[in-house]
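As a warm-up, study this chain.
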Amino acid sequence: MKSALVTGANKSIGFETARQLAQLGHFVYIGSRDKTKGLKAIEKLKAMGLTNVDCIQLDVTDINSIKSARQEIEGKTKKLDILINNAGISGGFPQPATKISIETLRHVFETNFFGVVQVTQEFMELLKKSDQPRIVNVTTELSSLTNHSDPNWIFAQFKPAAYGPSKTALNAYTLMLSVELKDTNFKVNCVCPGFTATDFNNHQGTKTVEQGANAIVKFATIGSKGSTGKFFNEDGEIAW
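Now compare it with the structure written out below.
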């Protein structure tokens, strides 16, 4: 049975991603900063008949928490097949570039960028033991510099000066990681779930969590001939 770790998986898109992977037969570790919320997520999944799940306390901004999570998973499995870096924060809106505080920028980057780097590096050795390791970094179309440069873009009015750049940096790291791993069996991609209705945006999104998770799961389970080092949503490739 293949194994997967999904960070920030106690609710919303992370939870649905974990559910879909478990339904496909993967053993899924629910990464949750709050262990109590993670355990409640496990109860919900088990009530659905999905017993191939476990809860891991994981705060992506705390290196000691990340190391403890890796040690716990390492004690339960010899390898990790899938890592989905889903945990993220918005930092609150609006975020005008002329007024965004340095504190907010640092707070958002700590989770959305540095957190992903820390988790990925810590779990790299376990991933290398998989025959087909997959890394999906959950991002957003608001990270696309090409899109933001287009005044006619559908989301042109949104200029999130903390959230957007934090994900742009994440995209860059994803590309660098994929280049470093290009001669291996790794597939490393950025995936945007789209404008999904969740707590993240006060349920203003136009997609369901099921729809949002579909693209993530697709690239988490991509075959050996699949793409790597790309930026996707459910409709295809997105410009950086």
